[in-house]
Design a protein that fits this description.
2 copies of one chain form a homodimer.
Chain A lengths: L9 H5 L9 H15 L7 E2 L1 H8 L3 H13 L3 E4 L3 E4 L4 H19 L7 H19 L3 H17 L4 H17 L6 H5 L2 H13 L3 H24 L2
Chain B binds a DNA duplex (21 and 21 nucleotides) through helix 4.
DNA sequence: GCATATTTGTCCGTATGTATA
DNA sequence: CTATACATACGGACAAATATG
């Protein structure tokens, strides 16, 4: 596990003062999670308890509770008597995540006709957001639209627990995306696939949409795996 | 939230002394989880920090970390400045759980032909265990065999993350089973269904097996929901 | 409605064990 | 092997919220 001693990112955490009362640990966890998904806290980085708790003006116990939350989300790994580190997902983890996503999202997309109109509209909105982003050459928006698209597909099943699980899986995947330097390279191929899936759904060709979704998973996984194994 | 002041179950927690070194909070969480799934810690019961930490010979901070873990598994609920309570899942929660299980397990069962022989054998073993239990009129074993069966179905997909999620869902569901006084009443109908599903799988009739699995979910959910709403 | 006791939320200081230089 | 740095866990403290009479 590589240990980068730079704590430059600490400043960005302490900018706004945390107010006193409740759920402080969860707010700290939210802050740390944001920094991880921004790419500021890179995979493999060690998180020092004292440095962070001092920077945030909170106690170590509170910070440890935040670490627990993030460890449970698989964004941090905990090595006994060594500390916590930002996860760096490898090939095995990525394959496992895609196996889970294949099951969940393919199961969810079949509910298209049974889903609420609101849920179906969520899928359309996600695609539309990505189309606008691509038109304005904003590939960061295209990336987030892709996330939104897959969360919207999952939401067709109408289960909060399923939604949360997919959100965890996507957050974990985001740490693997770190190896993809250029977001455009990764996402430009997938926006057309999302549009195709939506077109099939709107034509009530649900089985074909599921097949297309499976093709997406195959391509995205192999794309990511080849990048990860070549390091 | 009902608060039962009886702390009789504390003795059974403190029986074997906790050894010193690692992951103490996780072991405490395991102990508490076992007591919940045994039915010793009944839904709605409040867990007193000081009483439990004293009984276990651990500090409050360590116990609070264990609470965090179990809260994240949805086995405990945390009410601010009031404390933690054993979850009592209602109709909405149960429906949500079954919606998630329908997606996950139906997606997983389709992998039957692609799964490893080891995973397929796991399904056969679970059914066989239930058959033996029924023959010996041991309905507790039949109950655990049902849990094993559904975990084995999930394992066909070959994703550790999916397995863990289903395990969480089943643990949460177990708290809802509390309203079913007689385990035999609940399980005796489902063992034949599991046998039928296995027979269809072994005949490579995967689509029919999935349909039968869906029927199981519909029956189990309505069975539980009618019991929960009539209180 | 009020006063009191209990419980929780938050934090500190410290002793101990462990890994790394 | 020693020294240093760090994580682990404990006990105690105090404020704030809640429950009880």
């Amino acid at each position: 596990m590589t240990t980068a001693p730079s704590h430059d990112w600490l400043g960005s955490l302490a900018d706004d003062r945390l107010s006193q009362d409740r759920a402080r640990a969860e707010r700290v966890a939210d802050k740390l999670r944001d920094r991880m998904l921004d790419g500021e806290l890179t995979p493999g980085l060690q998180l020092n308890e004292k440095a962070i708790s001092d920077a945030l003006g909170i106690s170590r116990n509170t910070l440890r509770e935040a670490f627990r939350l993030l460890t449970h989300e698989r964004l941090l790994v905990h090595e006994h008597s060594r500390g916590v580190f930002v996860c760096e997902p490898g090939v095995d983890e990525v394959s496992d995540i895609y196996a889970a996503r294949r099951v969940i999202e393919c199961g969810a997309i079949r509910r298209w006709t049974d889903a609420t109109e609101e849920a179906r509209q969520g899928v359309r909105d996600a695609v539309a957001f990505g189309v606008r982003g691509a038109a304005m050459d904003n590939w960061l928006d295209v990336g987030t639209s892709n996330i939104r698209f897959h969360r919207a597909i999952t939401a067709l099943a109408g289960s909060l627990r399923l939604n949360e699980e997919v959100q965890r899986l996507l957050a974990e995947l985001r740490l693997a995306f770190y190896v993809m330097g250029n977001p455009r390279e990764f996402y430009q191929d997938y926006l057309p696939m999302n549009r195709a899936i939506l077109a099939l759904l709107d034509a009530d060709a649900v089985a074909e949409a599921e097949q297309e979704l499976l093709r997406y998973f195959d391509r995205a996984e192999s794309h990511l795996v080849t990048r990860l194994s070549g390091r």
